[in-house]
Amino acid sequence: MGIAYDPTKPAANDKPANDQPIMQTNFASIKTLIDVDHVDFSNAQYGQHNQVTFATISPPNPPTPPVTPPQLFTNTQDGAGNNLPAGLAQLFFYSGDASHSKNQYTSSNNGSVILTGGIILKWGTASGVTNGSTVNFVSAFPNNCFGVQVTLNIASSLVGIGINGFNQTDFTFRSIQFNGSAASGVPITYVAIGN
Predict the structure, then answer these.
(1) I want to staple 140 with a disulfide (CB 3.0 to 4.6 A). Which of 117, 120, 165, 169 is the partner?
(2) How many CB atoms lie within 10 A of CB 21?
(3) 59 within domain boundaries
(4) What is the tens place of the pLDDT at every residue in 24-74?
(5) Domain assignment present for 64
């Protein structure tokens, strides 16, 4: 249920006295709207937010990327339409960058999400990776990749795994076995952070 508001008042040809009761209702409704999450009119910090409360829309209705200007919204489904655990709404951010907005949230094994503040988190899997293999991110970072963490997905006799180079689009996987030889094809997962 909404609040009372008549956008036709004041009307051009009406006497103010006739429209006054409806105008007072409109002003009261505007105040009711402003008072949600905002500092009220009587405070020196009027117009600023105390907090931000997002509506729970059913069915979920996120914006279609690319979105200009960027938008924050809540949703109870991931980008593939799957319900989030326990139906808990999560906060999402769509930027004007279509390549990242469309990958804002996902429940797949390879994905990317823009966190509040513009930090981008990417994750993925790769199989049959050998020493020196290049592993591509699900999508390129638009500006910088700050770091990559790699995990081996099998029990192995490997002494060490890691990377020896990364950029906006990929990283180079490195591995060595107990006997000093390079590992043959192995499955890995990775997490990368950038902007």
Answers:
(1) 169
(2) 10
(3) no
(4) 999 999 988 888 888 888 888 888 888 887 776 665 566 666 667 777 777
(5) no
